[in-house]
Amino acid sequence: MKTVLFICVHNSGRSQMAEAFFNGLAVGKARAISAGSQPADKVSPVAVEAMREVGIDISRNKPKLLTLEMMEGIEKAITMGCEETCPVTTVETEDWGLEDPKDKPIEEVRLIRDKIKRRVENLIKGMINTSANNPVK
Questions:
Q1: CA-to-CA distance for 122 and 137, rounded, in angstroms?
Q2: What are the b/e assignments for 16-55, b being 16+ CB within 10 Å?
Q3: In degrees to the nearest 10, what's the CA dihedral of 42, 46, 51, 55?
Q4: Which three-class secondary structure string do you get for the chain?
Q5: Residue 68: its pLDDT value, please?
Q6: What share of the chain in percent tops pLDDT 70?
Q7: What pTM did the predictor assign?
Q8: How far apart are CA 22 and CA 31, in angstroms?
Q9: What would the pLDDT profile of 2-49 be if each residue is shown by its tens digit?
Q10: Torsion, Cα of 65, 104, 93, 57 (10° steps)
Q11: Could you give the domains of the chain?
């Protein structure tokens, strides 16, 4: 199964939302994990609230430290706009350049959440179409 790794500095907002959207929308055709280079103590309460508004509960998620082991078996890594603090990866990496929702009001976090969802939907379409054209054995 193809796996995507979403990376942001604290793994408390953007990457957590992306992981949840991806796993909910890919429906077993691919999977996502997320991690951070400097993980926070907990997932951002405003990210939890924004996701709850669209019917996804990430309140029990825990920020995870990015490790080399996480890179094993990953098809693609997506960094979320961490710029110079983004870690070097060993796989194809794309940066989505998304604003950090930390300390932002819920109205702004909703906009970030919706951008993440659209990008995740496009990513899944690309991965699924690629899989259909080039079946993995």
A1: 24
A2: bbbbbbbbebbeeebebbbbbbebbeebbebbbebbeeee
A3: 100
A4: CEEEEEEECCCCCHHHHHHHHHHHHHCCCEEEEEEECCCCCCCCHHHHHHHHCCCCCCCCCCCCECCHHHHCCCCEEEECCCHHHCCCCCCCEEECCCCCCCCCCHHHHHHHHHHHHHHHHHHHHHHHHHHHHCCCC
A5: 86
A6: 89
A7: 0.90
A8: 7
A9: 999 999 989 999 999 999 999 999 988 999 999 998 999 999 999 999
A10: 60
A11: 2-130 (3.40.50.2300)
CB atoms within 10 A of CB 89: 18
High-pLDDT (> 90) share of the chain, %: 68
Whether the Cβ atoms of residue 39 and residue 65 lie closer than 8 Å to each other: yes
Residues making up the chain, counted from first to last: 137
State both tokens at 33. 């994990």
Measured CA to CA, the distance from residue 75 to residue 44 in angstroms comes to 27
Place of tokens 């794309």: 94
